[in-house]
Amino acid sequence: MTLIPAGEFVLGINPDQQIIQFMSDATLALNAQPAQRIHLKAFYIDLHEVTYEAFRLFKPKIEYDIKDHREPIRGVSWYEADAYCFWLGKRLPTEMEWEKAARGTDERLFVWGSEFNRKNANFGRQVQPVGKFRMDTSTYGPRDMNGNVSEWTSSWYQPYSKSKHKDMLFGEKVKILRGGSFHKQEHGFMKEFTMLPYRNFAPPSQRFWDTGFRCAKST
Length: 219
Fold this sequence. Notes:
CATH topology: paralog of FGE (formylglycine-generating enzyme)
Number of domains: 1
Strand content: 15-25%
Low-confidence stretches: none
CATH architecture: Alpha-Beta Complex
Strand order of the largest sheet: 7-6-5-8
Helix content: 10-25%
Radius of gyration: 16 Å
């Protein structure tokens, strides 16, 4: 794990930043507006996504057809991810903790800066072992926060402070997913889905083959 120090960072994105163009109101990133300064206490977060090898220590009977035991575990529900972190005396990160650990404090849109470069992270058709893409390293040190697999957070899907956006799913219905993944290319690749402020969400009981997780811990 690595320590993310206490302090402010900019959460979300402003409406006047005409950089996120999607196909419908449901995917306009309106749920990530407006940008605002948030103060967080210090916390620890895993440097890498939890691997298949590590997860099998918790759930030995799990069997996936994989090429490398260092691949991130995926196809696990939010409940399984939460239970694994609890088993280690840790927890899932909140979505605000996840965003700060990925973006740093300078409002960057990708872990390496604000200009998209498809080669800097794994946005391809095949998952890769953790830590393989050197450029996919945040300023705080965690790897693969921009690509490889999306990640569960502990947070329910709620509106941001000062947000005017309405969504019938707000409340305690779906959990927030963060980060781009290898599988997004199957949808027809769009860099907007890999931007760090982008908020995705899903029911906690569902499993996805492009989604894993990493753990966090309070100081």
